[in-house]
Specification:
Radius of gyration: 12 Å
Order of helices and strands: EHEH
Largest sheet: 2 strands, parallel
Shape: globular
Number of strands: 2
Strand order of the largest sheet: 1-2
Helix content: 25-40%
Length: 71
């Protein structure tokens, strides 16, 4: 399987949606992304590992979404 990265605002919308669809359908093992993960329909519920940086730039809702992944 492949890995992809999504840079919010820098990718073609069709390409970005195709990557998101593949990730949501378990066709991609590794997804590298920015805060775009919070603003797209990326399904993080079955994600095994989330590594994030610059948490101080996240809002309260974004931090809660990450915390809820653990539950």
């Amino acid at each position: 399987k492949y890995y992809y990265k999504i840079n919010n605002g820098q990718d073609d919308k069709k390409d970005k949606q195709k990557i998101i669809d593949c990730f949501n359908n378990f066709e991609i093992d590794i997804l590298l992304t920015t805060h775009a993960v919070f603003y797209n329909d990326i399904n993080l519920e079955n994600t095994s590992l989330v590594v994030y940086d610059e948490e101080h730039m996240f809002g309260v809702e974004q931090k809660e979404k990450l915390k809820n992944l653990k539950e």
